[in-house]
Amino acid sequence: MPTLVTEESQSQITNLKPIFCASGVKGNKVTTLSSEVTISDFIQSIIKTKPTENDSPFSVLDLRVIIDLMNKWTTELPTVKPFYAVKCNPNISLIGTLASLGSNFDCASRAEIESVLSLGVSPDKIIYANPCKSESHIKYAASVGVNVTTFDCAGEVEKIKKWHPKCELLLRIKPEEDSGARSCLGLKYGALHNEVPELLKAADMAGLKVTGVSFHIGSGGADAKAYHGAILLAKEVFETASRLGMPKMKILDIGGGFTSGSKFDEAAFNVNDAIKTHFGNDEDLVVIGEPGRYFAETAFTLATKVIGKRVRGEMREYWIDDGIYGTLNNIVFDYAIVKCMPLRFGSKPENVICKDPKTYPSTVFGPTCDSVDTVLKEYELPELKVNDWLVFPNMGAYTTSSGTNFNGFSSSAEHIHIACSTPSLVGR
Ligand SMILES: *Cc1c(COP(=O)(O)O)cnc(C)c1O
After folding, report:
1. Residue 136 domain flag
2. What sign has the CA pseudo-torsion 322, 326, 331, 332?
């Protein structure tokens, strides 16, 4: 196996210093990977050096992925300020890296605000983007100077007037189109078109400033064209506010719904085009976005150990030590379709990636005693043994943030190894 750190990557370390010294990252071991080392090689090296330690399941966070995605964002959406949606993955090293790259943050609760502030991020880089907040959390936001939030009903105006009257408001609207997203946030949030004038008036009467509009087209696989329709709706709200004689709005918050890869190019094209079409001559406009999945999804890889096996005819059934109550809860809550690849450990001392041609329709169960805890069904896998490993790529979005300790099993959130690959590795 190639060595993990090369001289070439030593020189990179100098460039990466601001990130390695960022709060949330500093104090953690970061393994810099040379260009010929894959994340899977790195996982094997972890397994090899710590076979007896109780370190499974674990995740690998690749800081390079975050750096590259931030570069891509600023290149393709140069006028849109990113506010990372913390709920997607609140891992402190991820948040710290994003902060050191200049990101702002979308927080939805007191605890999320606290964790971002604990990294030394200024409160004016935080938007409290939860349209329905409890009074105690609003009071907390006021006390720490988080002064922008969203709302979509009159009840929220009352609470904000009472506990945080200096807070600026963005009216969250419900996008019209069904964007085809896996997770449709419009089912819960967003003012309807005909509710907009009354809500604007209610905020105005309460003496609150409505400075802009927000929306979310839905998370995971949304049609990029949905940004177009939603930005047009937002423009109409800007116009309604002007018609009502309210101060000119200036913030357009286009929410999340981004994924990395080629879908991002399409989304960026639609966003830029819609802004140009509908807000082209508005020089004071501030556009912000709230990407969650975009930054988190591909940055984490999950490694789980095969802890049990049953053979029934051709069928192979395996138990692994993480499941749908843990990191893999994205299968349930995020409608994720996961894929995995086997790493041999128990059966071959060399830890070679298994290339056996023969595969079996396999079921992969999580560790809890609930039959719902099934990760994969009829998934073709080579013959595995107890103590082999299954590695799941793209496991950073809506995974560790919503796992539980049901039945006494912990998730990979407890063991995170930080790596920084070289640029050529991204996408492997
Ligand atoms: C969840 C959420 C996001 C992040 O959505 P992604 O699709 O993961 O980018 C952004 N904004 C708000 C208000 C959210 O609730």
Report:
1. yes
2. positive
Q: Can you give the CATH number for the domain in which 262 is found?
A: 3.20.20.10
Closest CA to 319 of 309, 329, 334, 332: 309
Given the DSSP bridges, would you call strands 58-62 and 416-420 parallel, antiparallel or unpaired? parallel
Our answer to whether residue 132 is catalytic in this structure is no
Measured from the Cα of 185, ligand 1's closest atom is 15
- How far does residue 320's CA lie from ligand 1's centre (Å)? 30
By the 8 A CB rule, do 416 and 58 touch?
A: yes
pTM exceeds cut of 0.85: yes
The answer to whether position 96 is within a domain reads yes
Indicate whether residue 212 lines ligand 1 (CB < 6 A): no
Spacing, Cα 288 to ligand 1 middle (Å)? 12
* Pocket flag, ligand 1, residue 87 (CB < 6 Å): yes
CA of 165 to the centre of ligand 1 (A): 25
Task: Tell me if 305 is assigned to some domain.
Answer: no
- Total domain count for the chain? 1
Buried/exposed code over 51-69 (b: 16+ C-beta within 10 A; e: otherwise)? eeeebbbbbbbbbbbbbbb
pLDDT at 424: 55
Pairing of β 251-253 and β 286-289: parallel
CA 85 to chain centre: 7
Residue 154 has pLDDT above 50, yes or no: yes
Domain assignment of residue 123, yes or no: yes
Pocket test for ligand 1, best of 151, 216, 399 (most atoms within 8 A of CB): 216
Torsion, Cα 405 408 409 412, to 10 degrees, reads 50
365-423 pLDDT per residue, tens: 999 999 999 999 999 999 999 999 999 999 999 999 999 999 999 888 889 999 999 87
Kindly tell me if the per-residue pLDDT of 317 is higher than 60.
yes
